[in-house]
Amino acid sequence: MKFNLVRLSAIALLLCFSAQVNAETLTSVFSAQVEEDEIDAFSGDVDQAFFNVQGDDDQFTVYSFADFDTAGIGAVSDIAGLSMDLAQSNAAFSADGALEFFLATDTRVVDLNDTARYITDGDNVGSEVVGSAFGTLYSLGSGTYTVTNTADVDTFNFTLDSAGKAFAISQINSGGLLRIIATPGDLGVQATYSGAGSILDPVAPPVLNFTTTAVPEPSSAAVLGLIAFAGFCRRRR
């Protein structure tokens, strides 16, 4: 009877202190596009107005990245349901096509003097466009850009492999940045989206959506210890 009481009390406490699942929404704090061999500029600074991804059928390749600040989320043990919202900012040259997305390990501060570039050899699609400019790239998957109307929002659903998820969790737990890079998936795509410094009306910077599992509070560890102690007591009887 005493054992059953201890066990039930422990289970009740464990339910009270189970890990919490949270939906997170982060708005991009910085974005940039890499055009030919340089960071695209506007009025003497990094151009954050547009998040363009262009194949080289118009004579140059463009890829873009968006940064998301995770400070304030707190310690997490898992990430699920990752997606990004991009608002179309269309131009006369906008054209349908494929996109590829990556999580980059190099989240350095980028200015107009940065050495980032795109790779001119190979197919100029996917990770080959970026090369080693932003460290290791973890694939998030692909998507399709279809021209509709300016300010229409496209949602791209991502999947992290185990290594990418481990890196993302470490970034969140240290309050670091998550840097998402979008590259052409084919040579014909001319995707034109709004950047972090959007000049659209309404303003519509990239948004990252995901679900996290918070690290259990320290009291949960105590509850687990209580359950173990109850099991020990039972064995002693």
TrEMBL record:
Residue ranges annotated for the Ice-binding protein C-terminal domain, each copy included: 214-237
The organism's place on the tree of life at top rank: Bacteria
Signal peptide: 1-23
InterPro entries (UniProt xref): Ice-binding_C (IPR013424)
Keywords associated with the record: Signal
One Pfam family hit: PEP-CTERM
Protein name according to UniProt: Ice-binding protein C-terminal domain-containing protein
Organism: Mariniblastus fucicola
